[in-house]
Specification:
The chain has about 350 residues and is an alpha+beta fold. The protein folds into two domains: about 140 residues, PurM-like, N-terminal domain (60s Ribosomal Protein L30, Chain: A), CATH 3.30.1330.10; about 180 residues, Phosphoribosyl-aminoimidazole Synthetase, Chain A, domain 2 (Alpha-Beta Complex), CATH 3.90.650.10. Helix content is about 35%, strand content about 25%. Strands 8-10-7-11-9-12-13 form a seven-stranded mixed sheet, with helices on both faces. It has a six-stranded mixed sheet with strand order 1-2-3-6-4-5, with helices on one face. Helix 4 crosses helix 9, helix 6 packs across helix 9 and helix 7 packs antiparallel against helix 10. The longest helix is centred in the N-terminal third of the chain and has 17 residues. The chain is globular. The protein starts with 18 loop residues before the first helix and ends with a helix.
């Protein structure tokens, strides 16, 4: 009889599985069916959407959060809230409430625990989010402070929300900030001394400061209020390339993306080159992908830029395309399915 544990050939790598394997893993495992579920689990669907008994919906999302060595406890608390809230914000719904589970290693000091908790509360307050429950405990199986899960939710009228799968034929594809925001920022923190040998001081400081950009809460709100936005998606694990694959798949709509049309910010490009990761395929929490009605592009782009976020035209959606297409380094090819994110190996094995 086969052992109940995973055989070696079945063991997944670090990070998320490939989309096909993930769908096979969770197939049919969604609990009791409910007619109230408007948007349930799916590739690239950041939040679930539930119909309420009145004329409102609830958007709800969940995420784990891991700290990085060298990242302050205050920043860990800040990222916890923004990572959770971002997945609700991309639906056009304001994040309103949250719970979280803080898991700590044995003997982790109470004063440091208080620092994390205070930072989470401060950040939630700044975003207008109320903490309504959660769990905190010290456990032998935990080796570093970890948020086992943050759940965030909010409410909106039934006609005042969008789905990451809502792109329409002819929509323009926009991207904020640039690729690899999270990967570059966190890996720069981990490898600061190593990078300092090759990067100019101003570029290193710029990429380190991008830890403050690991959020799309503000960008999503600004874009949605500008109007004409059919869908938004946070380019998290697998980066922009995976994010594009997910929004195309969830919308059942092919897209064309031109990476050559975007100049990667110099600090990110240098960090990626020195550490050896592809900025287009590395985790990029903080990069917002949007599908926008052509007539509203200028307004959305201006609103984002006025709020402090760079905005790039990356491509367009076209139902006539037989598959999603990508131009990179002058070559146009069929867009590949997401592969492993190089971030995780570099995250676990920083340069000395």
């Amino acid at each position: 009889m086969r052992n109940e544990t995973l055989a070696d050939e079945d063991a997944p790598g670090i990070g998320k599985m490939s989309p096909d394997r993930m769908e096979e893993l969770v197939a049919g495992c969604f609990g009791a069916p409910s007619s109230k579920v408007i948007v349930g689990p799916g590739q690239g669907l950041d939040a679930g959407i539930i119909s309420l008994d009145d004329d409102r919906i609830m958007a709800v999302a969940e995420d784990p959060v891991f700290p990085a060595a060298g990242l302050s406890l205050e920043m860990f608390g800040q990222l916890t809230v923004h990572i959770g809230a971002s997945d609700v914000a991309v639906t056009g719904v304001k994040p309103e409430f949250m719970t979280y589970s803080l898991l700590l290693p044995p003997k982790f000091p109470e004063k440091d625990t208080r620092t994390i908790i205070s930072s989470i509360s401060k950040t939630a307050t700044e975003l207008g989010i109320t903490i309504v429950g959660g769990h905190t405990g010290w456990y032998g199986a935990v080796t570093i402070p970890t948020v086992g899960g943050i759940t965030v939710w909010g409410y909106a009228q039934k006609d005042k929300w969008i789905s990451p799968g809502g792109a329409k034929d002819g929509d323009v594809l926009l991207m904020t900030k640039g690729p690899a925001i999270e990967a570059a920022a966190l890996l720069a923190v981990l490898n600061k001394n190593y990078l300092a040998r090759s990067m100019k001081a101003n570029l290193l400081e710029r990429v380190l400061q991008r830890t403050n950009e690991i959020t799309v809460v503000s960008d999503a709100s600004v874009a949605f209020k500008a109007g004409g936005v059919h869908s938004m998606h946070d380019a998290t694990e697998g980066g922009v390339l995976c994010g594009l694959w997910e929004i195309s798949s969830s919308a059942r709509m092919s897209l064309f993306a031109d990476f050559d049309n975007v100049t990667i910010p110099e600090d990110i490009a240098q960090c990626a080159s020195i550490l050896g990761f592809d900025p287009w395929q590395s985790i990029s929490e903080g990069t917002l992908l949007l599908s926008v009605v052509p007539g509203h592009v200028a307004r959305v782009k201006k609103a984002l830029e006025n709020s402090g976020s760079a905005c790039f035209k990356l491509g367009y959606f076209d139902k006539k395309l037989p598959s999603s297409m990508l131009t990179r380094n002058g070559v146009t090819t069929k867009m590949p399915a997401p592969g492993p994110d190089q971030f995780w190996d570099l995250f676990a094995n920083p340069h000395k």
